[in-house]
Structure formats: C-alpha cells, structure tokens
Amino acid sequence: MNSFQLQNSEIESRKNDIIQTVYEKILQPLLISESNTFSELKRKIDILNGTFSHVQKMFSGRLRDN
Asked: How far apart (Å, rounded) are the C-alpha atoms in residues 35 and 39?
C-alpha cells in the first residue's frame, strides 16, 4: 500500500470513529429522551449534518505534513 492509500485509509478510519462518537454521545441520547419531538430531533440532526459538511469543505484537499 502506498502512502496516499494509507493516508486515505487513515482518514476514512478517523471519519468512521467520529461518526460513531457523534452517534453514541449525541444522537443516541437524543433518541432515548422522551422529551424530544420528531421535529426537534430532525432540526438537531440537520445542524450536525451541516457541521459535518462545513468541516468537510474546510479540510478537503488538505494533507497532513507528516
């Protein structure tokens, strides 16, 4: 595996770790809570989705120095 493929593999792994953490720490508690309505959950998920999109745009094309 060349360094570019290794870098992509590490990025994909880190992205999956972040998604799992967001699910466990944010989405799962929201889904369990009885005080949330569907529209509140959708609004919060849309905010998270927008945040991920913004970060992805900010860091697209950037490579780590090491």
From this structure: 12
